[in-house]
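Supplementary notes for students who missed Thursday's class. We covered one full example, reproduced here. Read the sequence, then the structure, then the short commentary at the end.
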Amino acid sequence: MLLRGGTLVDGTGVPERRADVGVRGDRIVFVGDAARSAIRAERTIDVTGLIVAPGFIDPHSHTLEDLSSPAHRGNDAYLMQGVTTVVTNNDGGGTTEIGSRLAAWARDGIGTNAALYVPQGAVRRQVMGMSAAAPTSAQLDSMRAIVGRGMADGALGLSTGLYYAPGSYATTDEVIALARVAAQGGGIYDSHMRDESSYTIGLVGSINETLRIAREAGIPVHISHIKALGTDVWGQSDSVVALVAAARAAGLTVTADQYPYLASGTSVGASLLPRWAEAGGRDSLRARIADPVVRRRLVAEMERNLVRRGGAASLLVTAPRDTLLRGQTLAQVAAARHVTPIEAALDIIAAGDAGVASFNMKESDLRTFMTQPWVMTGSDGSDGHPRKYGTFPRKLRQYVYDDRVLTLPQAIHASSQLAAESLPLPDRGVVAAGKYADVIAFDPTTVADRATYVSPTLLATGMRYVLVNGRLAVDGGRVTGVLAGRPIRHAAGPSR
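Structure (token representation):
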């Protein structure tokens, strides 16, 4: 196959150039002037006027269930963004059965390449349930063994969600103990930090904790969806950048990912409940809500957390899709029920909770993070939030073509080679002879996100051709249905 006449942005960050790209099997075999080199192909695609680039790599996607579902394993939402590889089991959640999940994907087929982390929160829950207690020596050994098995089965490293229960119940030393196991397997440490706001140890305190874990475990560290969340920490992006820059200068390997939206995606419970209220699981939480004395304490702490979130009008219910509350803010729900926002929130949580978009970030902080050379693109894609369908095209449309915050080569590099080298994913992330043929061609005049908070499942536009391992997953702007993706095992695993 030959992509002829396009403008190549190869992923390395160098300026764009005119070049043809030839593919044989699952590899790129030619980059240059096909006419001058007398290259012939079984199929030649005219990509004049299009940008040809490496397939995008999403280091933080919540795609485990989609890729494991017959209805969604094609991963169309990502293919239409130009994403050819996703990483999941982020935030410390997901399956601990790494080997069997990778084997199932290989057997059943997936639309994009996919890799897994060992999820610390799920590991702790498997050993200790929802207990907030410190582990015994035997329990810590059990957790180490699960992490070690996951690494041997091909996981990229260890992910944590130290903001979320039960991962949040782990001390720093406990996390270091597990991160050391991942380091022994050649993995990385990926963290949704303990605090991105001012809930507990604060944004800066969480950066310092994350760097300490990496330093003491001897492991590269990746900060998930880096942000300054809430009015209490707006403007602290400069301090975070300075801390990371100092750590990198001292020899620590530190990277981060970011989505180009000012609203995070979470749930009513995760955004407002103190973590102590979740200890013991759902039944214990419901008992605390029903206890008048405990409820008073709970309400007081939730009210403070609501202020951190910017108030009830800043929380928009987005999921599940069939909830009657979808599309309403917490303020609107409370007004309709003639109760306070916290009482409405407690009712929602007791009924099973609901996803929300939390509008609590500042554009200047987002841009400060985006322009750092160690920050890559990541969707953190979740149902109900438009980032699952729009992250990568949105970054191109708004921050390259419209606002010119980044150059096109910078944005492509942040979405491809930077991720490939950081994870690492050998032979991916650049367009060069010998690399895997994960290649995209998009129209710079039409590439854009269409998903909104009201209609979050609208496919992006502008992707004309998407090759995954040399096979056309998107042809002429249409998803082909070909399941060309592969499970990717870390090099330390038994096979790749």
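Commentary. The longest helix spans residues 292-308. The CA atoms of residues 242 and 292 lie 46 Å apart. If anything here is unclear, bring it to office hours.
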